[in-house]
Amino acid sequence: MQPNAQLDRLSEAFFRRMKSCLGIIITTHRGPDPDGLGAEIGLNYLLLKLGFDSRIINHDEAPEKLSFILEGHKIETFDQVDAREGRERLRGRTVISVDNSDPERIGDVGFLLNKDHSNLVIVDHHDGAAPDYERLFQDPDCASSCELVYRLYEAAGQEIPPEIALALYAGIVADTGHFRYGKTTPETHRIAAKLLETGIRPEKVAEGLLNNQPLGRLEIKKKLYQSLRFSKGKTIAFFSIRRDDVQKLGLEFDHLDGLVNELLEPGSVKAAVMFSERDRHRTRISVRSRSDVDVLPAVQKYGGGGHKNACGATVDSPLDSAIAEFIPVLQAQVGEPT
Ligand SMILES: [Mn+2]
Fold first, then answer.
1. Interatomic CA distance for residues 311 and 5, integer angstroms
2. For range 193-214, the mean pLDDT
3. Cα(39) to centroid(ligand 1), Å
4. The pairing of beta strand 236-241 with beta strand 229-230
5. Which CATH class is domain 219-334?
6. What is the 3-state secondary structure of 183-244?
7. What is the tens place of the pLDDT at every residue in 263-296?
8. Where are the beta strands (DSSP E) in 88-177?
9. How many angstroms does the Cα of residue 267 sit away from the middle of ligand 1?
């Protein structure tokens, strides 16, 4: 089927399914990101506009730094709603999980699912199952969940106001790595153009997503780069950070997001790793690679997962032994002699 034909069919089936819902709760994965939040905001507005009873409830609070897309939108946490209204009152509603196909990852919102998950609807773009047009509205070829939500607006013939366009555009920009990743399509750009036509400013989105970090992130970069090393053949670059250093700067490990990508800047580096000490006997390994280098098998050996070019694992080893053990495994994976 043509991609557009499939998306039209997804949208049509989605609205058919919505018709039988008495109340809707929209949620996303734990640790909500711009694509998940943008898709929630967009979908909630659309469903309310179409006369549905809908609200957004997440397991985790949305990150403070994303306030530029969150302003004016009501996003509650499960704990808040549970304390105020009691979870029992929310049972029986349809739970729409956007940007996530794994019921485990919606955290406590999962309490609202029927045992057989018959009230769960998935709107997602992650790799995995094919859509069943009943419960699962998934298009793994789509670069972001926000694009899927955009298609729903088109199918419903609804206008997108600027504050919704901002949230959807931010999600698309984040999930395509600023239109750089492989799933970016002509359609992605067409949708982005439509969203920009509402008058939103792309530089504000870029600033909100990229240049909205605490000062401590620069300090932590200094520490990381002091530890920079290369494999013998210099096709792997890696650095590491101790838990104490993160804590002393008043940072969370989240604040290190994306830094490992910088190590791929030299064209000769095939793979990059950041090792972060989570406690004395536990180390997080975050790996990135160039588009034609698959590093996933290396982390899978340690029970990790992710994508071919961006993946990770958490190992029960102290920082130094994790480095000593993992780098040769990665060298073998990228084809560098050890
Ligand atoms: Mn996404």
1. 32
2. 95
3. 9
4. antiparallel
5. alpha beta
6. CCCHHHHHHHHHHHCCCCCHHHHHHHHHCCCCCHHHHHHHHHHHCCEECCCCCEEEEEECHH
7. 999 999 999 999 999 999 999 999 999 999 999 9
8. 94-98, 120-124, 136-138
9. 27
Question: 184: CA distance to ligand 1 center in Å?
Answer: 12
Which part of the chain is CATH 3.10.310.30? 219-334
Find the length of the chain: 338
Compute, in angstroms, the gap from residue 31 CA to the centroid of ligand 1.
Answer: 12
- Domain 3-210's class? alpha beta
Share of the chain above pLDDT 90, in %: 83
Q: How far is CA 56 from the centre of its chain?
A: 17
What's the 153 CA to ligand 1 centre distance in angstroms? 18
Distance between CA atoms of 310 and 273, rounded to whole angstroms? 10
Residue type (1 letter), 225: Y
Whether 1 shows a pLDDT value over 50: the answer reads no
